[in-house]
Amino acid sequence: MPGQDIAVRDAADPISASADIGAPAASSLSGWPEEHRDAARTEHRAHSLEQEVREAFLPDAALSVAAEQFREREGQTAMAVAVARTIQGGGALVVEAGTGVGKTFSYLVPALLSGERVLLSTATKTLQDQLFGRDLPRLVDALKLPVRTALLKGRASYLCLHRLDLARHDASLPERGSPRTLAKIEQWSKATRTGDLAELPGLDERSPLIPLVTSTRDNCLGAQCPQFKACHVNLARREAMAADVVVINHHLFFADLAVRESGMAELLPSVRVVVFDEAHQLNETGVQFLGVQLGSGQALDFARDLLAAGLQQARGLADWQQLAADTERAARELRLVVGKQWAGAKLRWSGHAPEGVPADAWQQTLEALHHAFDQAARALDTVSEISPDFVRLHERASQLVERAERFATRCASGSVRWVDVGTQVRLVESPLDIADAIRNRVLKVGSQADPEARNRAWIFTSATLGDDPALRWFTEPCGLQDAEILRVKSPFDYARQAALYVPRQFPKPSDPSHSTEVARLAAKGAATLGGRTLVLTTTLRALRTIGDAMKRQLEHLDAASRPDVLVQGEWPKRVLMDRFREGAGPGRSGCVLVASASFWEGFDAPGDALQLVVIDKLPFPPPNDPLVEARSQRLESEGRSAFGDYSLPEAAVALKQGAGRLIRRESDRGALVICDTRLVAMGYGKRLLAALPPMRRLEAEAEFEATLAQLRGDASVD
Q1: In terms of CB atoms within 10 Å, which of 105, 376, 493, 552 comes out highest?
Q2: CA dist., res. 113 & res. 272, Å (int)
């Protein structure tokens, strides 16, 4: 039932330990009408699975072997039973499971015990690797099930042997260290079975070499590739098709929904249970893939591949250098016509040209880009029989021609258009949400085309899905208003484990001194705790300001006791997380991590590694973002409040995610500081405070300092 708390319902409607309660014994069904017999069998199977799931979560059952320090949690079992019920009956279930519930086992156990074919989707490749490499193997072994599992990622995660061969002969590698990195990849390529680049130690995930040794939908040669039989992508897809449980990520799911390219079109119809973990990211992930994009970087990549293939395989048959030069020139003109903009700017585009860009110059640049793509397509058509590389390049050119034509016309109804500005520019046309796609193309509500869709079980779960009982923040943009809504509270004793401090005497968020004061407070806390501090910022500008200021603030400490200040962007995310966790080890001076964006979620540092989380400002969505603006305008046109129905829920969910970094286990202790006086001065602050875990409140700076001293003492004792 929408908005109903699962724990309350289970307490009021307990399920008997008898496996056949609610359904007659199978042998007694012979005299019943067929439709009644089918319903009775379904109910019997449901109770059987639910009972099996309940038994698995008993203190001395299989899970005590699979999970370290396992103990029975009422919320975890209740969620698992709800998932089992949905698996048996089909339909959609949305579960908000607070931190510490153990939601991973809550959906894995019933999914595995059901015997159905299962698709699991996570938010990131890191979580995907954790699920496949740790959680699934433990459970499969503990439950003693003959289950075959497979891991499936997008093309960019796998080494492309054909592209690796091309890179060997590329005279224009992007950086000085590339030959050494390329040699390392070549050596690894001879030993790897999967080709998953995540398995290659020391490879920087930001390396500009990665795009040269991986394929995309644009440059993959498919069955015409000389390395097709040995292709790692195809191997991963074959294993996925043969597996009982397949682990993917949201990006891969929506990429396939948009272009039917990843092999999911064959996989999904055979799956009966689909689980989206970290489902709060679904909408923002989906809109990235369900729209249309054209970028100057995309054009430059095409020009590079065009020139390389032309000179290597068809020299003299076309003026490849001129064609590539024309494409590069048009791409650079596209960037130049936008003019000087701050990095990360998003230019509104509601008319013939983006805001601040001369319409005539913009249209001329788009026409030049269209002409360059068209000329390249014509030349490639004349040599397509020489090599499969030219067939694929011709398809890319034709697609680029179509996109250039689309962006020369007005934006489609129900979508929003803008230009992302950085070193390159990217033209984007996006739907406002994924509701239509989920209802019509995933759940297929009311569709007669796929009768199996009505019997499929869809599980959507996350620790944070909204700040109201109906979880409208999540269900509305995802088209899930008709789904069953269940909420399971965190088992943590937040009043005992954590404290919340909102400094009353603090600069307003708009004050130029705000970031400096955040750095001062955080540095003071880090000095007391010996690091163990995470500072979350709402902007990259604040990130740099606070990071630099904290380094200066901590310079006066002795080198032996001075915490290291790590700033997002200085190292790959994985390296930053590992260094932060290691900083709390014996003989270490501790670490401070100043981060933004993706570190608000998915960062896990349990135990004493993290005892202080500082949030600089309330994370409201940027009002000048074109997508935010369009969503707000739509709500206003419907007579609703853009602030109350969009901006405030967005901030509440982001705030819950950030606060969730602090307490990860029953034994954790810590303090959360939110350096934004609006939380206690504005009327809407009560709603945001209610969305946070029920931590005890600290009213004065002296209380805050005493709490830090106690945390430091507790850590020393441990």
Answers
A1: 376
A2: 13
Assign 588 a pLDDT band (cuts: 50, 70, 90). Answer: confident
- The closest of 213, 211, 253, 249 to 232, measured between CA atoms, is 213
Count, residues in the chain: 718
Q: What is the pLDDT of residues 593-643, one digit of tens each?
A: 999 988 998 888 888 899 999 999 999 999 889 999 999 999 999 999 999
What is the reported pTM?
0.88
Handedness of CA 155, 161, 162, 164 (dihedral sign): positive
The side-by-side arrangement of strands in the sheet containing 415-421 is: 292-295, 425-431, 415-421, 346-348
CA dist., res. 367 & res. 361, Å (int): 10
Across 500-506, average pLDDT:
95
**Averaged pLDDT for residues 425-444:** 92
What are 97's strand-pairing partners? Answer: 488
3-state helix, strand, coil in the chain (%, to 5): 50, 10, 35
Cα(257)–Cα(129) distance, rounded to whole angstroms? Answer: 22
Report the side by side order of strands in the sheet with 533-536.
564-567, 591-595, 533-536, 612-615, 670-674, 498-501, 696-698
**What residue type is assigned to position 4 of the chain?**
Q
By the 8 A CB rule, do 120 and 131 touch? yes
- DSSP per-residue letters across 80-92: HHHHHHHHHH-EE
- The closest alpha carbon to 500, from 374, 385, 658, belongs to 658
Residue 353 burial (10 A CB sphere; 0-12, 13-18, 19+): buried
Q: Are strands 245-249 and 564-567 parallel, antiparallel or unpaired?
A: unpaired
**H or E element, residue 378:** helix 359-381
Give the per-residue pLDDT at 94: 98
How would you classify residue 21: left for phi > 0, otherwise alpha for psi between -120 and 50, otherwise beta?
Answer: beta
